[in-house]
Amino acid sequence: NAGVTQTPKFRVLKTGQSMTLLCAQDMNHEYMYWYRQDPGMGLRLIHYSVGEGTTAKGEVPDGYNVSRLKKQNFLLGLESAAPSQTSVYFCASRLPFQTRPLHFGNGTRLTVT
Amino acid sequence: GQNIDQPTEMTATEGAIVQINCTYQTSGFNGLFWYQQHAGEAPTFLSYNVLDGLEEKGRFSSFLSRSKGYSYLLLKELQMKDSASYLCAVRVAGNQGGKLIFGQGTELSVKP
């Protein structure tokens, strides 16, 4: 049982380049989330989705876009990368009940030079 | 606004007990979660509290006081493998998606 899988694991981009981070879950979870984690800042929510075809903004959405075309996949896009987007990105998913915890992927370490 | 506070770092000795505190001020409350995160790895779920009181799960216990906006995670019989970051997170009520707001995490070092 794979759980939540993120690709790629590492990436280096130049300023202005674009890329897409892929998150896939095989637990049939309705809700999916993208967080970024920076030293001293904790995990901050970028965008989230409560079902196929729906997305919503989190705390720090600027510079990112997302899509949820299939229930099991949640894509995070950076159209024009900036050094401020250097971070570790985590995808998470969960069932739609308030008591249910998030299940996290192993993260993508992105460096923008 | 949303604010969750935890100590940045703590050090404890193998075999001892350590308590990691978390205070929160959020617009609504729908449960508090504790996660463990080893360096370079994903956070993993430890415990959930929504009612006041203590929840025990093996060597780990978590306590909640909603009136005080306070929680703690208690780790007993510390082992070297407990060296990790411990994240406190609040599920904010009244919004679609039941978002989790995270504290910055407490880095725990267990010494021999």
Key features of this structure:
heterodimer; A: 113 residues; mainly beta; seven-stranded mixed sheet; four-stranded antiparallel sheet; 11 strands; 54% strand; B: 112 residues; six-stranded mixed sheet; five-stranded antiparallel sheet; globular
Please tell me about this protein's structure.
- The complex is a heterodimer of chains A (113) and B (112).
- The radius of gyration of chain A is 13 Å and the shape is globular.
- Helix content of chain A is 0%, strand content 54%.
- In chain A, strands 2, 4, 5, 6, 9, 10 and 11 form a seven-stranded mixed sheet that branches. In chain A, strands 1-3-8-7 form a four-stranded antiparallel sheet, with no helix packed on it.
- Chain A has 113 residues and is mainly β.
- In chain A, 35% of the residues are buried.
- Chain B has 112 residues and is mainly β.
- Helix content of chain B is 0%, strand content 55%.
- Chain B contains no helices and eleven strands.
- In chain B, the strands form two sheets. In chain B, strands 2, 4, 5, 9, 10 and 11 form a six-stranded mixed sheet that branches. Chain B has a five-stranded antiparallel sheet with strand order 1-3-8-7-6, with no helix packed on it.
- In chain B, a hairpin with a 6-residue loop joins strand 4 and strand 5.
- The mean pLDDT of chain B is 94.
- At the A-B interface, strand 4, strand 5 and strand 10 of A face strand 5, strand 9 and strand 10 of B.
